[in-house]
Amino acid sequence: MPIAGPPLAEPISTADILAMGLRSDPHGLALTSVKGKFTWQEVDDQSSQLASGYLDLGLSAGDRVASLLPNRPVVVIHYLACLKAGLVATPLNYRYTPVEIDHALEVSGASLLLHHSERDADIAASKRAVKLSKGTIRCEAGNDRGVQFQDLLQEQPKSGFPRAAPDAPAFLFFTSGSTELPKGVTHTHRTLGWMLASVVESFHFCPQDVLLPGSSFAHMAASLFSLSILAAGGQLVVPWGNHSDELLPLIRSTRPTVMFMLPSALIGLVRDYGAQHEDFSSLRLCFAGGDKVSAELESEFTELTGCVIDEGYGMTETGHATISPTDGEIRLGSIGIPCPGYEFSIRDEDGNELSTGQSGRAWVRFMGNSVGYWNHPEATARAFDGEWLDTGDVMAADSDGYLWFRGREKQIIVHDGSNICPQEVEEVIGLHPAVEAVCVVGVHDSIHGENVRAYITLRDSIAPRNAADLIRFARKKVGYKAPDQIVFLDRMPLNAAGKLDRTKLIQLAEQRLETPPG
Length: 518
Fold this sequence. Notes:
By secondary structure, the chain is α/β, with parallel strands linked by helices. It has 2 domains: 3-406, ANL, N-terminal domain (Rossmann fold, 3-Layer(aba) Sandwich); 413-511, GMP Synthetase, Chain A, domain 3 (2-Layer Sandwich). It is built from 14 helices and 27 strands. Strands 3-2-11-10-12-13-14-15-16 form a 9-stranded mixed beta sheet, sandwiched between helices. Strands 1, 17, 18, 20, 21 and 22 form a 6-stranded antiparallel beta sheet that branches. A 4-stranded parallel beta sheet has the order 5-4-6-7, with helices on one face. The radius of gyration is 23 Å and the shape is globular. The two termini are 45 Å apart.
């Protein structure tokens, strides 16, 4: 029998995300960053002006607007502008290389690309950016006070925007599969509204809350949490990065009540010699996502702050799906219980429901599930079966409905919250003339979640290369996805079918061994 969270009454209207704040205190703070502050009225005005500017460029409802931007208030204002104008916000991972930028632009069919000035060289190297029908818009580095696209702002924005149809696309987020290039996960105004409603109820967001999300706004999680706190009338703090030298002063100055952080960012905070218990006295909840929280981090954070790190589970395709109860028992190591509106089904390979305690593939049913992958019906058919989404992840449930994450079937390496496809890295390293065979796996790391390790055998006829040379070679082609570590093997382990035994190499990594036994 599926494990269900509490019922969810209705979605939040994407046209009314700012409504509560505007009604209660239009001149109160809605957005805060290290270099700028915006009232609710200013956020509403600037997002309306920007929405009008987009439409005056000739963009129409349904057009995709890609963005390659670091965390800044302008990103949130841009998202709100797209929702108002009926455009499809298409965030690109800020660490994308030119090749990855081109892939995302091609898949999405974007009409316009917004990019930060520090990415000028990559945009110049892009083959598709120059071909976009509405071109590119450059965001200058500087303070956060204005939206920085001044030529787009309309002093007299349109008096009103028609509400987008519930089933019209609103966001297109890119994710990675285990064996394929990144796919565009499509969320409509309806599915986004259901996800927002579930987050607000799960975290009990209210107008008195101040949220600090220490993660990239190009990813689903930070974007979803940020829009959710605004929908609840609370204040959003926008960090430029997730390093402790910036986060700690922001915590001291803004006094957040809720933090959403990658474990790597939390480690930096608890080990910052300037951090004191008093710095975290405003917190009622600290939530960690993206990677597993180690027992060591949990202990250090609780000792410093007095708060327990709450864990959960989410996917780009379904939003934030589980949480350890904010007002109930937190079971260390568990990803919690289903959030409001969500149902989980743990199944075997034949689709049969499994008993309590048995590990199997997790399926999720939720009214906010993605409607599929953009222009990829084959991938959509593989992942979705009616109302159910196949997560591809292995879980088990205990007798009280708490879920326990057991592993990733998709082989994805999650490094600092970003998904890395091993096969993509293998293809690049395999291009080096000295490499005979390569296998890439994730190695658990208490700071980054997983590091990328490449096992390599070399060709006898080629002069051996050192690990640093090969890492540099890979970084030129895949950037941050390049391996952190390289282990040279005399031979690759093979399975009974004569194929490379990836499972054995993963076991080697887990056992901290450098060569296969036997």
